[in-house]
Amino acid sequence: MESLTLTDVEQKYYSDLFIYCDTDNTKKVASNGRALDLFRAAQLPSEVVLQITELCGATRLGHFGRSQFYIALKLIAIAQSGLPLRVESLNSVKDLPLPRFVVGKNEAEARHAALYQDSDSQGLYPASAAAVMPRPPGRGLQNKKGTPSIDFIYLCFQPEPTSPVVSPQQSPPTSPPSWRKHKRQTSGGNVDRPAVVAPTGAVWTHFREPQESTTIRTVASAAMTNEIQRQSSGYDDPWKITDEQRQYYINQFKTIQPDLTGFIPGSAAKEFFTKSKLPILELSHIWELSDFDKDGALTLDEFCAAFHLVVARKNGYDLPEKLPESLMPKLIDLDDSAEGSEQTADVGYSGSPVEVTPSKSPSMPSLNQAWPEMNQSNEQWETFSERSSSSQTLTQFDSNIAPADPDTAIVHPVPIRMTPSKIHMQEMELKRTGSDHNHPTSPLLAEPPELSDEANLPASLKFVAANTVGDGYSSSDSFTSDQEPTTRQRSQSGTSPEALKVVAPPPPPPRPNASHSRSSSLDMNRTFAAAAVAGQPQSSTIAYPPAVPPRPLPTQAEGASGGGAALSTTTSPQQIPQQPNFADFSQFQAFAASEHKLDVQNAQSVEKTSEGAGPLRTVKSDGQAKGSGSGSGSGSGSGPLAPPPKPVRRRLKSEDELRPEDEQHGPQKSNVIAAVLATQPSIPRSVGKDKKAIQASIRRNKETNTVLARLNSELQQQLKDLLEERISLEVQLEQLRPFSHL
Amino acid sequence: MAVCIAVIAKENYPLYIRSVPTQNELKFHYTVHTSLDVVEEKISAVGKSLGDQRELYLGLLYPTEDYKVYGYVTNSKVKFVIVVDSSNTSLRDNEIRSMFRKLHNSFTDVMCNPFHSPGNTIQSKAFDGIVSGMMVQTASTV
């Protein structure tokens, strides 16, 4: 036969048809069977067909070889165009349209034709209607890429792999048949048509399946292919995964890993994807692209991406250099949108629907979550005190029916600190003066923020909590130090309201309550504030919840000479009945008065801390009542004593600001300490009195212990700081006077 | 910055080797091969303190008049060798270390690929990219 020159289009078309007809994969088409059907579909008279057959030499050979087949097809085209059948006309006729084949005979052919025609218009739909002039699959030619087809997926991953799958670029006749066999076996059909993996392969696949398949799967695949092809051929985003595809991928994922949120280990994935018969190099590249987090395992998203890439590859798409955006797992908010380079013009930017919550990298999402949490927690640490204090304040206020005097609330700022603080100093002032409570409160209020920076014993926190304004500030102190006191305070405050109409727990003891026995100091503060503002009687009623007789009260009482005494007296009567044994305070006060200034300081701080303890407060309050006078005296006496040690410590921190506070603190601390110390000796007394009192005193002592321990640690720290400073100063000194050594 | 980067397997055969000036590839191959001796020497020297972490970065293996050779060995005895042109402003140690770190990381990624069998030559494009990134600069500077 003459050599046949075919245009590219014709070549492709013919090869597709040949593959289609080559059911036995023998590179030759039997005269009967598909080829015959095909020819008949050409709607040519049978004699013409015979003539063609003869012309092409098939009669001679008994079968259609490839060349014969091609010739036959060309002759069919010639015949269809009305030209006489001549061998010579094979090559002479130019611009010969492709042979048409009517649908009725052969659906596949018809669809194929239709496909060809519609290829440009992305109509991969089977145009089962009329035969259409098949047009060159320009699309395929241009891109030499088919559309990713689910069929390929099915074909790729049949459980019974037969022959190695050939990459799309390989000649269709060789690869597809075996490949197809693979699929057909599963489908049960005996469609031995070679899968045309080439540009038209997808189409063929698509069309063949419906034709021959009876299984649901193939139908489904056809449908999916349809969808896929429709989408892909639209060039919207070749990498977009359709829902059907995704569903299929998910099902496949389940076969390997039932848990959709789990991983597929690398080995299993390797086996799975090896079934697709892609070369290892390409599979390796696909893996690199799809294993987003590089952990050697695939999550569902990664698996879908990998699967999609395999499918694309099998359909002839080249693998991208980077993972397309639509395939990127939407697990992490990575801004790797740089990826998404596509060979095709259209790059889909819309991510494929992520149906499964990505759990691939639990570490990463959790990391992302962890960080914000950590940050938040950090912030919480910062603000916690604020919040807690406010919450405490609220709590207390709720319990305190009479939150009483706004003044009291305002007045009691603060945090009881073990360390001398402005607040305390101010509180001391407040108590001492007793007259102008408002004034101290303002400085108190102002200062707490500054003082909050200092380390405060928990007790101070408790006090703070009780207070309104100061609370915010004090709470910061408290939280920095310890939470317990606050809780205790809260509880106390809770109890106090019950016990007493007075609101709760002692508002942060104005200064003097260095012991931080919240209740006491707070009560004191409130007491004094109330006294100052509304008059003493009111404050007294309000200030001292029976449950928490503020130990500081006595000290406070000591500090605030006039008001304190009055208040303490007023408060004590209330408390005394409840806790009769508050002789402590008298002793305390006496003790405090007699204490050395350092002791006083310690006592004050201790007292403050112990005040935070709570129960101690009751003791204190009682003590206050009794020792108000002495307390005040001691307070004042301690006042002058306290400052000196405090300034020493203060210098370490904020000298200027603390100076005035120190003085205030000093007396407070001394009072506090004195109160604390006083309460301790008073314990034995209380024993004899009342079980309640005993328990209260025990509690108090425990709190005192805690407070003292904290105070101790604080002082130790301060000592260390001081020593360090001293050393540094000495070094500087030596540097400045090097010659001193000589 | 590097002129040649090589990854050598435990058995001392190259898994990956790439040079910038293609004309002197053989020379670089030879250099890398000879540097293996130095690497072995260093490994065995530190071998005394078995068990505890041996320093992965070996540092300058030996300098010649034209270039310097740096070595890095992983715990699985996979060696990375970087040949740097001496005419370049001498790179700081940190930079070399960071280069090795990057190499090690991308090597790990390659190993994680289930389709890559250890012992095969590295054909990962990502790895190539990283290496090129390290070597392109050389081309620009030189």
Automatic annotation (TrEMBL), chain A:
Biased segments, Polar residues type: 473-496
Domain EF-hand span(s) in chain numbering: 278-313
Biased composition (Basic and acidic residues): 653-666
EH domain location: 10-97, 245-329
This protein's UniProt keywords: Calcium, Coiled coil, Metal-binding, Phosphoprotein, Repeat
CDD domains assigned to the protein according to its UniProt record, in alphabetical order: EH
One Pfam family named in its UniProt record: EH
GO BP annotations, alphabetical order: endocytosis; endosomal transport
Bias type Low complexity, positions: 566-593
Protein name: RALBP1 associated Eps domain containing 1
Upper classification of the organism: Eukaryota, Metazoa, Chordata, Craniata, Vertebrata
From TrEMBL, chain B:
InterPro entries: Longin-like_dom_sf, Sedlin, TRAPPC2L
GO biological process: endoplasmic reticulum to Golgi vesicle-mediated transport
Protein localization: Cytoplasm, Perinuclear region
Pfam families: Sedlin_N
Broad class of the protein's primary localization: cytoplasm
One GO location term (cellular component): perinuclear region of cytoplasm
Source domain of life: Eukaryota
Keywords, sorted A to Z: ER-Golgi transport, Transport
Family: Belongs to the TRAPP small subunits family. Sedlin subfamily.
UniProt name for this protein: Trafficking protein particle complex subunit 2-like protein
Organism: Cyclopterus lumpus (Lumpsucker)
Top-level taxonomy: Eukaryota, Metazoa, Chordata, Craniata, Vertebrata
